[in-house]
Amino acid sequence: MSAGPRDPMDPYIALVTGASSGIGEATARRLAAEPATELVLVARRGELLEKLAAELSCPVSFLAVDLTEDDAPARVRAHMAEHHDRLDLLVNNAGAAWRGTFAEGGYENVRQNMELNFDSVVRLTEELLPLLRESAPSAIVNVASTAGRVARAGSGAYSASKFALIGWSDALHQEEAASGVHVGMVLPGFIKTEGFPAEELHAKASTRWIVSDVGKVADAIYDVAINRKAERYVPRPYGLAAGARLLAPWLLRRAGSSEQAQVFTTKTGETDRKPGT
Fold first, then answer.
1. CATH number of the domain enclosing 178
2. Which residue among the candidates 158, 222, 233, 238 is catalytic per the annotation?
3. What ranges make up the beta strands (E) of 144-209?
4. In the chain, how many domains are there?
5. pLDDT tens-digit series, residues 115-171
6. In the annotation, is 238 catalytic?
């Protein structure tokens, strides 16, 4: 194989970050179900990547790396050079959230959210963009969040990182369209994962219905990548909240300041990624 327009007989090479659990794992399983797919899985927890790779029916390579480390992008690129000479799809999914008000967490909380959710995405994309261009038509799908359109009290740092990711993604698409590299986004709402268990929402029948699952996000990622769509909300009605933010910002501020709105500031799940690490 050689880089350039993909021959239909050649494998479709997709790289998924944050692939050890949650949305990343579901995306890997969704892509593996397609014929002629080869996957590159990237996450910190190598034992989980190895287990997932053994369960998938397509060729898989994986790399255990923390994407916030200085040499992480170069390590991923070296892995690609060893195993593949093209890249058809980059799914930037790795991310986390550390909750807290600005008075509680200050700049440090903003910094660590930005480091993983925005900076690491930008750095990895920069490293892999030449390969994506050589392999065009290709695609980048950035997993943002509805929180990147509508912010909530107690999660401002997370929203800041996703707002940044959305703005950068829109600009990058315009810049790379002529190169044949499509840049799309998926904006999940409340999705039950290891990092976002949403126990507060599941506890009440009145809010349980708004929590979706990782499989639907994986389907949206596939749709945005293959059909070269600009963005998808999951569930789709969450797009109404983003529209309300533009049309009636005063209404969302009033609703967000109400006592009832506190249930929507969910706690972060217990993972082995601790604040400041």
1. 3.40.50.720
2. 158
3. 181-188
4. 1
5. 999 999 999 999 999 999 999 999 999 999 999 999 888 999 999 999 999 999 999
6. no
